[in-house]
Amino acid sequence: MKLKIAVLPGDGVGPEVTAQAVKVLKAIAQEFDHSFQFKYASVGAVAIDETGDPLPKKTLDLCKNSDAILFGAIGDPKYDNNPSAKVRPEQGLLKLRKELGLFANIRPVKAYDTLLDKSPLKKQFIKGTDICIYRELTGGIYFGEKTLSEDGNTASDLCVYSRVEIERITHLAFKAAQSRKRKVTLVDKANVLESSRLWRKVVTEVSEDYKDVKLEYLFVDNAAMQIILNPKQFDVILTENMFGDIISDEASVIGGSIGLLASASVGDYFSMFEPIHGSYPQAKDLGIANPIASILSAAMLLDHFELFEEAELIREGVEKSLKLNITTPELNSKFNHITTTKVGDFIEDFI
Amino acid sequence: MKLKIAVLPGDGVGPEVTAQAVKVLKAIAQEFDHSFQFKYASVGAVAIDETGDPLPKKTLDLCKNSDAILFGAIGDPKYDNNPSAKVRPEQGLLKLRKELGLFANIRPVKAYDTLLDKSPLKKQFIKGTDICIYRELTGGIYFGEKTLSEDGNTASDLCVYSRVEIERITHLAFKAAQSRKRKVTLVDKANVLESSRLWRKVVTEVSEDYKDVKLEYLFVDNAAMQIILNPKQFDVILTENMFGDIISDEASVIGGSIGLLASASVGDYFSMFEPIHGSYPQAKDLGIANPIASILSAAMLLDHFELFEEAELIREGVEKSLKLNITTPELNSKFNHITTTKVGDFIEDFI
Ligand SMILES: CC(C)[C@H](C(=O)O)[C@@H](O)C(=O)O
Ligand SMILES: CC(C)[C@H](C(=O)O)[C@@H](O)C(=O)O
């Protein structure tokens, strides 16, 4: 297979981890005789520094002319603590999601047997956890109208959803559940929010098409509790943009490190693959950032193009690295000299 | 001291747990020679059944003519799964908060030494945790304009905050931090939301008045993770309404049971005290609901009127009941015949 892959390393540890994913994809290409072409472009704070724009037109064009996008991370503390900054790195990511119509963000959360001890949660609570979160990604309060009054003393954000936006991700979530444990849990705040009530209505209607899948409802506050108390109760979690952001980062504690969590963002025409950890600026260039989330995102990319065998091989490499303790320091109490690059090398060699 | 206390038992397990708190307050009154007068009124689904209104005028009037309100719980599944219901129990609670101007919801989260084993989190992660969450309670997306398009296919909720709303709770949070570990963590999503940027700006300004308190910022997604990974890093958490709802329920897992978590909702003129667990309808009338959250809410009520010694005595009673395993089933693997009422009786006797 021939694939044109746009690589957007972005900020912080983005470049280091993405480099490992590219390395692994190149090994796959060689091993399976595919032709993957990688083209690089800048995004985020790095792009602001270069061009003043967090998503330069050149970058967007490259993405639109590629089959898939491999994304690193975005964000820089120099913008975070300046509430009045006019341009911010995150706008680059949000615009990319919107422009490419990447409406479904898919975030698998798994408790690896070899890592059960690393989680702050007790083994018996998490062993066997296998959740897949479907987070809506181009609607809700992220993209609704924002206002700031002239005197700067009142600010607002609008959370808005339409039936179509809810329907399309709901179909994806139910289809995913059909080849999993056949359960979808809708997370919302329908006892307070009008938009959540629309979610509940539309999802209930769509669920009629999937009689073999069980639909459950959970208020987001309760969900935030249940994910820790009893994560094994979940199969597919379906939710809107903001709740999905919170719930999925929270769920990362189950695996023992956010450095393990990959994601795919898909739409009707494009797809993007990125680790769910952020730019982690404190770790930049120290060689301690875990590349596994990025490498597993590359595996999700292969899955997306139905290269299942290839994706599986990457996952085996990852599991092997975890088993042999070839892991970055946050997961490694034995060896502390294993760098981002070494983990990448190991998985590359394995392939 | 003379106190007029409005008691609003509400739905589900509300009445059973509130009855224990009242019993304990009566014991305190007797022991310390206070005069507490209790007057009851209905709210929530119960009130809808009786009057069609989740907050009857009679109830609101009683609250306005009382010194404090003891609240049970609200919510009924028959409304939850009916997105088109016109009247819903939660409106009673929200209206009460708004009408009484209860803008600050204070939720302490503590890891009791005797209960460390009950938490899904490992001991070493939670031992010593002592967090106090200040959640804004009368603004944000809970109270902004809601719309549903005529065709029913688009719904929206507006999240709006003004400087004044942010300032007043920020002062309370910083004052609280001054008599604690002198740290406030603002939880927001300032990299995406305009309202969060206003929060960050105003809180930073107010913090200038409290040079002895350290201010930190955390994005809500990261906060949802940090609360589990390292809860001991927190002292006072300050946040807006929706994030506070999620984060505080999540934090309840630290204590081992949401049945332990009390809250106070305060404003310039009124104050209300309620367990943070909901109506828990499955447990209604089974005698298994934990009354401690309600009893500790009563202790917060006493604190509010500077009856510190009295409040302390209740807390000692609670700790003793936990130590002796006089607890409801969710915390009790030894005895499973200890009911809601028995826990109340024990603490009453202790006093
Ligand atoms: C960087 C930020 C805008 C982004 C989000 O909130 O969506 C990130 O937290 C994520 O989850 O991908
Ligand atoms: C019942 C509901 C409206 C309420 C809220 O969301 O505020 C509850 O969850 C709480 O936290 O007090």
Question: In words, what does this structure look like?
Answer:
The structure is a homodimer of 351-residue chains. In chain A, helix 1 (14-32) links the parallel strand 1 (2-10) and strand 2. With 351 residues, the first copy, chain A, is α/β, with parallel strands linked by helices. In chain A, 41% of the residues lie in helices and 21% in strands. Chain A is built from 13 helices and 12 strands. The first copy, chain A, has a 10-stranded mixed sheet, sandwiched between helices. In chain A, strands 6-7 form a two-stranded antiparallel sheet. Chain A folds into 2 domains: 1-102 and 267-351, Isopropylmalate Dehydrogenase (3-Layer(aba) Sandwich), CATH 3.40.718; 104-261, 3-Layer(aba) Sandwich (Isopropylmalate Dehydrogenase). At the A-B interface, strand 6, strand 7, helix 8, helix 9 and helix 10 of A face strand 6, strand 7, helix 8, helix 9 and helix 10 of B. Strand 7 (154-162) of chain A pairs antiparallel with strand 7 of chain B, so a sheet runs across the interface. One 3-isopropylmalic acid sits between chains B (74-75, 90, 93, 245, 276, 278) and A (191-192, 221). Chains A, B: Its EC number is 1.1.1.85.
Spell out the key features of this protein.
Isopropylmalate Dehydrogenase; branched-chain amino acid biosynthesis (chains A, B); 2 domains; homodimer; ten-stranded mixed beta sheet; magnesium ion binding (chains A, B); alpha/beta; 351 residues; binds 3-isopropylmalic acid; globular
